[in-house]
Amino acid sequence: MNGLEARLATAARGRARHRMIRTAEPRPAGIDLASNDYLGLIRDPRLVAAAVTALQRYGTGAGASRVVTGTVPVHRELEDELAALTGQPAALVFASGYAANLGLLGSIGGPGTMIALDAHAHASLIDGARLSGAVVRFWPHNDLAALAELLGAADRRVVVVVESVYSVLGDAADLPRLAELCADRDATLVVDEAHGLGVTGAGHGSVWAAGLAGVGHVLVTASLSKALGAQGGVVLGSDRLREHLINTARTFVFDTGLAPAAAAAAAEACRIVRSEPERVAALRAVAEAIAAGWGRPVAAGAVQSLPAGSAGAAESVARQLTTEGVLVGCFRPPSVPDGISRIRLTARADLDPAMALGVARRVPALLAGAE
């Protein structure tokens, strides 16, 4: 057995495995409470038409890095729409949300910096921090007293990294207090709005709702593949930040630009979010129905999450519901740390609240029977 084979065999022993759900349909038949299509826009005819028009005009890909020949007018159109939606001065679009986080943290990190991450920060934020060359520290989830202590002991420039809405637990960061704490310590706050954009703050996001849009020490990233129903990622902040990223973000400079069709679809989604507040309200009604089915307070965004006693219980419940035509999120190691296995139901604007309530009511009993 060579070195690679030995490594693969060692890594596989005793580890839970991901199982990808395969389907021949454009969307799985039955009830989908697992996807991140929060506003039900993935198959919206307006997004499809915008993408088709871009395909016909620009072709299937950007063809190069955006600093070479890969920038087309629809990229700037999308950036203008994102800035308008979030109330930010400027935006820079990346090929994915993952690339946006790596690019931003790589550009503002470095050996003279400490990046302090919430313990439940997304893998892309963790990878970006580690690849930046900065000193990396973690603080207990949403524990601002622990963060204040960490900042007080810091001997270098600090970047604090959080998510506005956390993708597994579904809980929210206290952005006003975080921004104040960072301002007091002369730290930069990075907020990943992957699960907030299009969902919280009437669709404008949690940073906008907290009155922090355009605040100089608060930087925002987001994915365009969730509520906006497309693909790509974005960093939002000042014009000066945008110019800095164009010249230093390796995942922007050395990556092919976002496909024009995806950019056009995301731009159309921004316009829909701004013009149809009832769509966000419909999403909220479904989220409230799920929470009511569990007898729990509704979470901040679309993600409604219920603890499972074990990884096996979570997988068993998800498998049982799948056989009944109901897709739910199953989070267990290796995607999450040991002890944080959960069943996640994702609210969507195009779902019936009564149906969501009925599914939610079944989950606690199924979990109890699976233990």
Structural key phrases:
371 residues; alpha/beta; Aspartate Aminotransferase, domain 1; Aspartate Aminotransferase, domain 2; four-stranded mixed sheet
List the helices and strands and how they pair.
Blueprint: H1 3-12, E1 31-33, H2 45-58, H3 73-86, E2 90-94, H4 97-108, E3 113-118, H5 123-131, E4 135-139, H6 144-153, E5 157-163, H7 175-184, E6 188-192, H8 206-209, E7 218-223, E8 233-237, H9 239-248, H10 250-253, H11 260-275, H12 277-294, E9 303-307, H13 311-323, E10 326-331, E11 342-346, H14 353-370
Parallel strand pairs: 1-10, 3-4, 3-5, 5-6, 6-7
Antiparallel strand pairs: 2-8, 7-8, 9-11, 10-11
Walkthrough of the structure:
The protein is α/β, with parallel strands linked by helices and 371 residues long. The protein folds into two domains: 112 residues, Alpha-Beta Complex (Aspartate Aminotransferase, domain 1), CATH 3.90.1150.10; 231 residues, 3-Layer(aba) Sandwich (Aspartate Aminotransferase, domain 2), CATH 3.40.640. 44% of the residues lie in helices and 16% in strands. It contains 14 helices and eleven strands. A seven-stranded mixed β-sheet has the order 2-8-7-6-5-3-4, with helices on both faces. It has a four-stranded mixed β-sheet with strand order 1-10-11-9.
